[in-house]
């Protein structure tokens, strides 16, 4: 494999700590698997605001455009909550998604067997759960205009956000979901609120058009978002691939993530359209946030970030075997009974962020030796 450049954006809070563990994993692959990853770091979020006065400095954007892939930690923190919207850490994240055209957010929610008892749901409802939420990421009320808050002549205030989708935006995200489903169980559930919102009724119709024309072998169902939220906690295993808009996907993916026992375990990939050089812009990040309450204590769970790097190996670099070994190493460490605080269970061994990273590396090395012997 030729040299590939990864831009690291640790961001805020525990983002700093969990990205450090991913860096160790990247170095391990260079040393042991012949990859030639180079890395550099840039600021994003509140940290970027503190250093440069903006949550998304131009330098960061330039570096992201140049990189072969981006790995992000998390953004946000209470100290930035009173800033103007345009300066808040979250703007940095939304800005980079938009600037790189990352319209497809892929959020797998799988239940690790060792953690099936850590879910708030009963074991049999979530054991073996393996679903993927495909969330549209650059449209909807997140970006629609008009938006803002205005004060009317009588002194009342009016807040406005606008839900907007165009049919090409729906088509491209639908295709991502159908392509994924082709490699899985050929089942897609499109989630909307077509009984109330015209925008999402159009979404429903356009998703069906793409299925009928291009993916006739995929079983497509539709569900209203309120029902989908209910069904996710009632019987999540009925789903395989779910596809939905930005705001519904934001909410449903947190819900699905928590089902699996810990938000600290789940990775995500955000992908754009192939450019003229064949490159697909891609940003990988854990689904969890910056967790300011536990930041700097070396107790955060680095697994979601490490699994995000596994997704990078798979989607950006086509290194499926390496992605699999990394995922196996994570499962192995869990099976050994090691747990960070967020997934701690009776009888398990509580470990720090750095110790979890080290344990994953050690298991990776053991797996690597076994493979060489075999
Ligand atoms: C997510 C987060 C972000 C979002 C925030 C931090 C802007 O909740 O990635 O799900 O709403 O998209
Ligand atoms: Mg969210």
Summary, kept brief:
By secondary structure, the chain is an alpha/beta fold.
Oligomer: single chain
Order of helices and strands: EHEHHEHEHEEEHEHEHEHEEHHEEH
| Average pLDDT for all residues | 95
Distance between the termini: 23 Å
Molecules bound to protein:
3-isopropylmalic acid, magnesium ion
* CATH fold annotation of the largest domain: Isopropylmalate Dehydrogenase
Q: What is the CATH superfamily of the largest domain?
A: Isopropylmalate Dehydrogenase
Radius of gyration: 21 Å
- Number of individual domains: 2
Uncertain ranges: none
Strand order, main sheet: write it out. 2-1-3-12-11-4-5-10-8-9
Could you say what the CATH architecture of the largest domain is?
Answer: 3-Layer(aba) Sandwich
Shape: globular
The beta-strand count equals: 14
Please tally the helical runs, counting DSSP H or I stretches of 4 or more residues: 12
Which percent range fits the helix content?
A: 40-55%
Strand content: 15-25%
CATH top level of the largest domain? Alpha Beta
Features of the shown structure:
Isopropylmalate Dehydrogenase, binds 3-isopropylmalic acid, alpha/beta, 374 residues, two-stranded antiparallel ribbon, 2 domains, 42% helix, 10-stranded mixed beta sheet, single chain, binds magnesium ion
């Amino acid at each position: 494999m030729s040299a590939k450049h990864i831009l690291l954006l640790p961001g805020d809070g525990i983002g700093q700590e969990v990205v450090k563990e991913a860096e160790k994993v990247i170095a391990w692959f260079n040393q042991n698997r012949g990859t030639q990853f180079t890395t550099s770091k840039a600021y994003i979020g509140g940290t970027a605001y503190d250093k440069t006065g903006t949550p998304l400095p131009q330098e960061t954007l330039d570096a992201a455009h140049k990189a072969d892939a981006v790995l992000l930690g998390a953004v946000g923190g209470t100290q930035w909550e009173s800033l103007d919207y345009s300066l808040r850490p979250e703007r940095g994240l939304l800005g980079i998604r938009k600037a790189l055209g990352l319209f497809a957010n892929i959020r797998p929610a799988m239940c690790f067997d060792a953690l099936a008892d850590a879910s708030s749901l009963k074991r049999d409802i979530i054991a073996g759960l393996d679903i993927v939420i495909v969330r549209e990421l650059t449209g909807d009320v997140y970006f629609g205009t008009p938006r803002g808050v205005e004060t009317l002549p009588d002194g009342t205030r009016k807040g406005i956000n606008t839900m907007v989708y165009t049919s090409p935006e729906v088509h491209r995200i639908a295709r991502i979901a159908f392509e994924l489903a082709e490699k899985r169980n050929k089942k897609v559930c499109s989630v909307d609120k077509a009984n109330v919102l015209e925008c999402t009724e159009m979404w429903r119709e356009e998703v069906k058009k793409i299925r009928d024309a291009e993916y006739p072998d995929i079983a497509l169902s539709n569900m209203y978002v309120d029902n989908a939220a209910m069904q996710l906690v009632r019987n999540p295993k009925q789903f395989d691939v779910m596809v939905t808009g930005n705001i519904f996907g934001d909410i449903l993916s947190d819900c699905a993530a928590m089902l699996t026992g810990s938000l600290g375990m789940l990775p995500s990939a955000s992908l754009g359209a192939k450019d003229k050089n064949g490159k697909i812009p891609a940003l990988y990040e854990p689904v969890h946030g910056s967790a300011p309450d536990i930041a700097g204590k070396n107790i955060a769970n680095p697994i979601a970030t490490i699994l995000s790097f596994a997704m990078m190996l798979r989607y950006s670099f086509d290194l499926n075997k390496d992605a699999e070994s990394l995922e196996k190493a994570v499962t192995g460490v869990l099976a050994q009974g090691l747990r960070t605080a967020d997934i701690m269970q009776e009888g398990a061994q509580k470990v720090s962020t750095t110790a979890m990273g080290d344990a994953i590396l050690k298991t990776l090395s053991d797996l690597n030796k076994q493979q060489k012997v075999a």
